[in-house]
Amino acid sequence: MSVLQVQDLHTYYGNSYVLQGVSLEVEQGTVIAILGRNGVGKTTLIRSISGHTPCRQGHIFFQGKEISHMPSYFIARQGIGLVPQGRRVFPSLTVKETFQISARGATEHGWTEEKVLKVFPRLGERWNQRAGKLSGGEQQMLAIARALLGNPRLLLLDEPTEGLAPLLARDLGSIIQQIKAEGLSIVLVEQNLTFALALADYAYVMSKGRIVHQAPAANILLDAEVKARYLGV
Prior knowledge:
By secondary structure, the protein is an alpha/beta fold. The chain has helices at about 40-50, 70-80, 95-100, 115-120, 120-125, 135-150, 165-180, 195-200, 215-220, 225-230; strands spanning about 1-15, 15-25, 30-35, 55-60, 65, 80-85, 155-160, 185-190, 200-205, 210-215. The strands form two sheets. The chain has a six-stranded mixed sheet with strand order 6-7-8-3-9-10, with helices on both faces.
């Protein structure tokens, strides 16, 4: 069953035509990778889905309901969690305070504070520390935890390994696998090709604002032509 459907999306920044007819689909419980070089529209796609940069044309359906021109706060309340590029945690808030302002609508099997801390035990060790004093890896954990506490059905991850050491990126990959095992659907924008394709079930490759190739993640990993032409590998 599809959780998200994006149909013929066209998005602009002023007069700059960024997304030029993008379509994709995310099925329940899958990880979808959005791949491509810098500047091809990957983050704009995430921002259009989350309502921060609304499309001018096209349709976005989440769990069968159109959200194309809904405000971002409404989209979040429908069950779409966003982990933005650059983490964007509130530096003056402690980990505890960030958890408190993020928690919403936890059900018996949802993401409670206790459950999130089992996935991110390090955040429990930093409970009373301000987010601005955390390491880059800890801030990324906090950004993901913040999104999970909203109990989303779909998680949007924009460049989660950016600025992380390889060991921290590996740990983050294990965490995303745990989250996926809970049945959460994930859209992953990532420059680290090996990281993204190891986690993803299916991948879309973007170039100049369009989807130019799509295939199961394992197929793209073996496709030397696509990697050389569109991914710079």
